[in-house]
């Protein structure tokens, strides 16, 4: 799926009546970052884009606005999960290190985001640790996942799980040589 991150950011920034410098100051990022994202000259890390979106008080879900299923829907076929892969930096959307995030239903309507995540060998959310106002947990279904929360690091195998306050800086990485599959939940929704 092709998604013009730069155009979307520019649309939201100008709609909020902010200059690039205003948004950079609100988000606590360099002014040049806003300009390079809007010009599609760089693919921001998840953590960098999160900071910029925090400056606009908008979630990843609202930024990428995938079609939302009915909040009344109870059951979902595999093909009905919402593909959130486009929120990832371009380098993570293809080849080695690719990540795929698929969401069950309308996370905002339920104030709960449930994801089926797939991390190809070498996939990594990046050296910039993630941090957001949520709580999250997950269980590794297959493969291995290295989870870093603050200064704690653990490599989890199938059947093992994690649960933490997402304001603590964190990172996910597949150190193995086979894909890793995770089912996770986050409240309130983050992506």
UniProtKB/TrEMBL annotation:
GO terms for cellular component: cytosol
Tagged with keyword DNA-binding: yes
Presence of keyword DNA-binding: yes
Gene3D superfamilies, sorted: Jelly Rolls, lambda repressor-like DNA-binding domains
CDD domains, per database record: cupin_XRE_C, HTH_XRE
Domain HTH cro/C1-type: start-end pairs: 9-63
Coiled-coil regions listed: none
A Gene Ontology molecular function term of the record: DNA-binding transcription factor activity
Entry keywords, A to Z: DNA-binding
SUPFAM superfamilies: lambda repressor-like DNA-binding domains, RmlC-like cupins
Annotated signal sequence range: none
Protein name: XRE family transcriptional regulator
Species in which this protein is naturally found: Phreatobacter cathodiphilus
């Amino acid at each position: 799926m092709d998604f013009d991150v730069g155009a979307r950011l520019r649309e939201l920034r100008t709609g909020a009546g902010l200059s690039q410098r205003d948004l950079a100051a609100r988000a606590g990022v360099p002014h040049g970052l806003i300009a390079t994202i809007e010009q599609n000259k760089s693919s921001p890390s998840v953590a960098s884009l999160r900071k910029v979106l925090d400056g606009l008080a908008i979630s990843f879900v609202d930024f990428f606005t995938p079609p939302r299923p009915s909040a009344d829907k109870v059951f979902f076929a595999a093909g009905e999960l919402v593909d959130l892969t486009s929120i990832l930096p371009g380098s993570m959307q293809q080849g080695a290190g690719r990540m795929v995030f698929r969401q069950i239903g309308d996370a905002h309507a339920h104030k709960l985001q449930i994801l089926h995540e797939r991390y190809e060998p070498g996939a990594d959310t990046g050296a910039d640790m993630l941090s957001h106002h949520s709580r999250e947990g997950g269980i590794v279904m297959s493969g291995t996942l290295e989870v870093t929360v603050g200064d704690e690091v653990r490599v989890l195998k199938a059947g093992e799980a994690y649960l933490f306050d997402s304001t603590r800086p964190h990172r996910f990485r597949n150190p193995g040589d086979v894909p890793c599959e995770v089912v996770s939940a986050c409240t309130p929704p983050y992506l």
